[in-house]
Each structure stands twice: as structure tokens, then as C-alpha cells.
Automatic annotation (TrEMBL), chain A:
This is E2 ubiquitin-conjugating enzyme. CDD domains: UBA_II_E2_UBCD4, UBCc_UBE2K. Belongs to the ubiquitin-conjugating enzyme family. GO terms for molecular function: ATP binding; ubiquitin conjugating enzyme activity. Its EC number is 2.3.2.23. Residues 161-199 form the UBA domain. SUPFAM superfamilies: UBA-like, UBC-like. The gene is Ubc4. Residues 4-154 form the UBC core domain.
From TrEMBL, chain B:
Pfam families: zf-ANAPC11 (PF12861). It comes from the Eukaryota. Together with the cullin protein ANAPC2, constitutes the catalytic component of the anaphase promoting complex/cyclosome (APC/C), a cell cycle-regulated E3 ubiquitin ligase that controls progression through mitosis and the G1 phase of the cell cycle. The APC/C complex acts by mediating ubiquitination and subsequent degradation of target proteins: it mainly mediates the formation of 'Lys-11'-linked polyubiquitin chains and, to a lower extent, the formation of 'Lys-48'- and 'Lys-63'-linked polyubiquitin chains. It comes from Drosophila suzukii. GO terms for cellular component: anaphase-promoting complex. Residues 34-77 form the RING-type domain. This is Anaphase-promoting complex subunit 11. It is found in: Nucleus. The lineage of its organism: Eukaryota, Metazoa, Ecdysozoa, Arthropoda, Hexapoda. GO terms for molecular function: cullin family protein binding; ubiquitin protein ligase activity; zinc ion binding.
């Protein structure tokens, strides 16, 4: 990899390790291989959001042209959020695209993602299904997002009603993740979800 | 007592007077070079924007060349203009 990309990532890695956020366990970063081209990030769900109590893992790929181009970041942990694909983990955030600036760092990217969890932009969605629910049925959005945080990110809130509906679909031979996705999309209406799966 | 100086050798040090320690693009110290260069000094100069932010010339030129439309300072996003002293 290009000289500047490697030397900068090494410096940034140290910067994150020394940061206050590390001490507070709010962000984390680790190496995936020895070449410094791929890293693994982790952010804590911000307080007073449906993501609170969850830990979300991110895939960070550093291009050779870094820092002139942004790192490629996606969520590995599945998450229910209007600006993050519930299927692929792809993120819609301006600073990871056109609004990137060479002075930004891995630390500021992780903090921006944490801020995105606390302030969704449903009018600029990455996942139209989630965004629609966010705007149309906000209470159900909160429940679904908390449930996903519990199921995938170790969040504290359990929803027995969701779990039993997922179990019903599992009993019909549906994969757990697919069952959760379909029920979430259909606002936890078991009949509609079943219809969608078997029609 | 009289001292007669027969010869003398002047020694000087220099440093950049920048408003920061490190280049915001490559994160290297201004006292050293950008990652592409070997010798600090005139071969790898610093430049300032009107916005007062300072970078290695090689770093900011590379950044500006990659911005097709809005050429902005990577620190403050004001449109970039070289501050000619």
C-alpha cells in the first residue's frame, strides 16, 4: 500500500488507542491483518437511543489512496436504522462519500457513525423499508431497533412477543434472520409476514 | 587582555512557524517532510491557505487536484485559496 496511507493509519491507530473514548469503552479499533489495509472498529450504541447497550462491529477497508479518499466502512453487526442497510450493512453518510476531507481520521469517522445512530436522517435513506417505518410508525421502529440491538449487538431489552413470532416462522422452516427481517418489515404482523414468505 | 578573533563559523537552526505541529493531511510533523520526500526544507515546503490552515505543499496540492469541483480546505471546508505572503 502507498506510503502515506500506511504511515497515516499507524499514527491514527495510536491516536485512537490514546483517546478518551477508548477509556470510556465507547469506541474501539483493532487490526485484522498485518498490512494495515483492513481494520475492525466497534462503537457503543449511544445513550437514549434504541441502540443503547449494544456493541456494533464495523468493517473498515483503507484504500491505497487514503487519506485522499475515504475509508470504506460498513456494519458487520446487523442493525435496524434508516441510513444503514438491514441486509448488507452499507452506510449512507455524506462524509464517507462526497463530503470526505483529508483531515478526517478513523476516530472522527467512528464518532460520526455514533452520532448517526443518535440522529437518523429518514429523508436520505439507505434502507427504504426502515425509513418508511421510522416516519410512519415510530413506536414500532423503536421496538424493532431495540429488538435487533438485543438480537445482534447484545442489547439489554428482550421482547418475548417478537421472539415467539420469530419462533413460529422458524417452526415453519424459515431461517431465523430471514424471519426477523420479514416480521420487522411487516410491522410484526405475523399473518402478513407468513403471506409474504409463502406466496 | 586583548582577544583577537582569527576566524568564526556561524551556526543557525531553522524551523517552520506553523499554527500546528502536524500536517492535517499526512499527519507527519511539519519539522519533517511529507511521506514522499526525504529532505525537509525548501524541497518540501509548507503552504498556508487564506483560512490560515497550513499543510505540506505536496499534500495540499495532491488533495486539491483530486477535488474536481469545490476545492476546499480539508480542515475547515472553506474554499481554498493560497495565502501568498
Amino acid at each position: 500500500m502507498a506510503n502515506m496511507a500506511v504511515s497515516r493509519i499507524k499514527r491514527e491507530f495510536k491516536e485512537v488507542m490514546r483517546s478518551e473514548e477508548i477509556v470510556q469503552c465507547s469506541i474501539k479499533i483493532e487490526l485484522v491483518n498485518d498490512s494495515w489495509t483492513e481494520l475492525r472498529g466497534e462503537i457503543a450504541g449511544p445513550p437514549d437511543t434504541p441502540y443503547e447497550g449494544g456493541k456494533f462491529v464495523l468493517e473498515i477497508k483503507v484504500p491505497e489512496t487514503y487519506p485522499f479518499n475515504p475509508p470504506k466502512v460498513r456494519f458487520i453487526t446487523r442493525i435496524w436504522h434508516p441510513n444503514i442497510s438491514s441486509v448488507t450493512g452499507a452506510i449512507c453518510l455524506d462524509i464517507l462519500k462526497d463530503n470526505w476531507a483529508a483531515a478526517m481520521t478513523l476516530r472522527t469517522v467512528l464518532l460520526s457513525l455514533q452520532a448517526l445512530l443518535a440522529a437518523a436522517e429518514p429523508d436520505d435513506p439507505q434502507d427504504a423499508v426502515v425509513a418508511y417505518q421510522f416516519k410512519d410508525k415510530y413506536d414500532l421502529f423503536l421496538l424493532t431497533a431495540k429488538h435487533w440491538t438485543n438480537a445482534y449487538a447484545g442489547g439489554p431489552h428482550t421482547f418475548p412477543d417478537c421472539d415467539s413470532k420469530i419462533q413460529r416462522l422458524k417452526d415453519m422452516g424459515i431461517d431465523e434472520h430471514e424471519a426477523r427481517a420479514v416480521l420487522s418489515k411487516e410491522n410484526w404482523n405475523l399473518e402478513k409476514a407468513t403471506e409474504g414468505l409463502f406466496s | 587582555m586583548k582577544v583577537r578573533i582569527k576566524s568564526w563559523t556561524g551556526v543557525a537552526t531553522w524551523r517552520w512557524v506553523a499554527n500546528d505541529e502536524n500536517c492535517g493531511i499526512c499527519r507527519m510533523s511539519f519539522e519533517s517532510t511529507c511521506p514522499e520526500c526525504a529532505l525537509p526544507g525548501d524541497d518540501c515546503p509548507l503552504v498556508w491557505g487564506v483560512c490560515s490552515h497550513c499543510f505540506h505543499m505536496h499534500c495540499i496540492v495532491k488533495w486539491l487536484n483530486l477535488q474536481p469541483l469545490n476545492k476546499q480546505c480539508p480542515m475547515c471546508r472553506q474554499s481554498w485559496k493560497f495565502n501568498v505572503h
